[in-house]
Amino acid sequence: MGAMEVTPRLRKRIERDFGASESADEVCRLVGEANDTERVQAAIVLAASGRVTELHDAIALAQIDWRDLLMNAGLANPDWPMRLDAQLGPATT
């Protein structure tokens, strides 16, 4: 799967959780390569809680069963768009 850019609001969250240094660039790259939807990408970032080890675990889980990852990150229920807005801020169009 090719790399997909993360959304601006997800990048902002990554910079907040992982620091705005080059590590944020690497996290964005890894998350973008892991999945092509903002929902699953955000679940990876939220599950990681700013920890690189958990980031790799969340990426691995996304490859095995992304639905389990959504459950772990609280983004599996029908209210997931509101939860995503609460975690990342409103989506810009």
Describe this entry's structure for a reader.
By secondary structure, the protein is an all-alpha fold. The chain has one domain (8-88). 71% of the residues lie in helices and 0% in strands. It has five helices and no strands. It has helices spanning 8-18, 22-34, 38-48, 52-73, 80-88. α1 (8-18) packs across α2 (22-34). The model has no long low-confidence stretch (mean pLDDT 92).
| Low-confidence parts | none
| Overall SS class | mainly alpha
Report the sheet with the most strands, covering strand number, pairing sense and barrel closure: none
Distance between the termini: 25 Å
DSSP helix fraction: over 70%
Extended strand count: 0
Q: How much of the residues is beta strand, in percent?
A: under 5%
- Taken from the alpha-carbon principal axes, the silhouette is globular
Provide a concise account of the structure shown.
With 93 residues, the protein is mainly α. It is 71% helix and 0% strand.
Write the layout of secondary structure elements.
Blueprint: H1 8-18, H2 22-34, H3 38-48, H4 52-73, H5 80-88
Search tags:
93 residues, mainly alpha, 5 helices, globular
